[in-house]
Specification:
The chain has a single domain, classed as Up-down Bundle (Four Helix Bundle (Hemerythrin (Met), subunit A)), CATH 1.20.120. The chain has five helices and no strands. Helix 1 runs antiparallel to helix 5 and helix 2 packs across helix 3. The longest helix has 30 residues. The radius of gyration is 17 Å and the shape is globular.
């Protein structure tokens, strides 16, 4: 049996946790306290973001697309690398649809980070037509699943090419 820290952490577990928290916030048998609902929804947004961020970061690391010495700035660098990949020098390896997928993943990570920053740092989360916790937590999960599924495809395709 593996003990903590004996294997690479499976970041997809954060996405599973976000799903469980979302289900909990959505399926109460009794009315939920609005503060408790907000706490759950803030955590859904945060865990979903960090799950896919770390999966994408590790993928970019393995592909050699990001200088590991700049790891402190990965939150800013990673989406840019995916959206406008310097790795287009590998374009003979990466098919156009793979580049397109990477750009979509990068844009979704940017949107998720904005929501995650609001969820983790803002004392007040204005409920407007564009922004509210319930919608952001639902979108965060949707984006996380989209990113994970497409990242799995990119990894599989890159393994087939190698």
């Amino acid at each position: 049996m593996l003990m903590c820290c004996e294997a690479e952490f499976p970041w997809s577990k954060y996405i599973e946790l976000a799903e469980a928290l979302f289900e909990r916030s959505s399926n109460y048998n009794k009315p939920i306290n609005p503060i408790d609902a907000e706490c759950l929804e803030r955590n859904v947004i945060s865990r979903a973001y960090f799950g896919v961020f770390c999966l994408c970061r590790n993928f970019a690391d393995e592909e050699g697309w990001i200088d590991k010495s700049k790891r402190d700035n990965y939150h800013d660098i990673l989406p840019k690398v995916l959206i406008t990949p310097e790795n287009e020098l590998d374009s003979n390896i990466l098919a156009n649809y793979q580049l397109s997928l990477m750009k979509k993943v990068g844009k979704k990570i940017q949107k998720m980070r904005r929501a995650r920053n609001r969820a983790d740092y803002d004392d007040y989360y204005p409920s407007t037509l564009q922004v509210n916790f319930k919608r952001d937590s639902e979108k965060g999960l949707e984006f996380a699943k989209y990113i994970k599924n497409n990242l799995d495809k990119l990894i599989k395709n890159n393994q087939n090419v190698s």
